[in-house]
Amino acid sequence: MYAKALEIDSQIFHEEHESLATSHHQIAIAHLELETLSEALYHAEKALRIVLRSQAKKNLSLISTFQYSLGLLQYNLGNMGKALKMMGKALNNLLACPAEHQTMAATIYNCFSLIYEKEGDTQSCGICGKS
Questions:
Q1: How far is the C-alpha of 17 from the C-alpha of 28, rounded, in Å?
Q2: Is pLDDT above 50 for 48?
Q3: What are the phi and psi torsion angles at 104 (to 5°)?
Q4: How many angstroms separate the CA atoms of 100 and 33, rounded?
Q5: Would residue 49 count as lying in a domain?
Q6: Domain count within the chain
Q7: 89 in a domain, yes or no?
Q8: Has residue 3 got a pLDDT over 90?
């Protein structure tokens, strides 16, 4: 169904419209759940590229969500450096939002802890977990 949504959005909207980014993001999440990670990576990266070029590029909460998903995907692929970098971007964008839009902050900090734990950095893992 997400692929059908993308097909419809592609016919209606120009290639830099945030609706296309949302469709690609949903497809990425579905592929992540199915563990088809290369497909998930393609759609997650495409979603982020589109949203950064769209009129929604000032919506830091949306950008943060897409960056979080890409960071989580990099974590699942075993790319801890890329995961940390993307989670850092997600957190920075989220913290630039008004407090009512920062509901994902704890989730991002938890992901930092998972990444540090996977890298064997238990000191940083504990610090992130306590923040």
A1: 17
A2: yes
A3: -90, 0
A4: 28
A5: yes
A6: 1
A7: yes
A8: no
Going by the DSSP 8-state scheme, the letter that residue 97 receives in this structure is S
Q: Backbone dihedral region of 78: left (phi > 0), alpha (psi from -120 to 50 degrees) or beta?
A: left
Higher pLDDT, 101 or 115: 115
Q: Is residue 38 part of a domain?
A: yes
Q: Which amino acid is at 100?
A: E
Question: What's the token pair of residue 50?
Answer: 């589109």
State how far the alpha carbon of 22 is from the alpha carbons of 62, 99, 128, 131, in Å.
Answer: 9, 23, 29, 30
pLDDT digits (tens, 9 = 90+) for 75-108: 999 999 999 999 999 999 999 998 888 888 999 9
CATH number of the domain bearing residue 70:
1.25.40.10
Give CA–CA dist 43/123, Å, rounded.
34
Q: Is residue 109 part of a domain?
A: no
AA letter at 107:
T
Is residue 56's pLDDT more than 80? yes
Which residues span the domain enclosing 25? Answer: 2-100
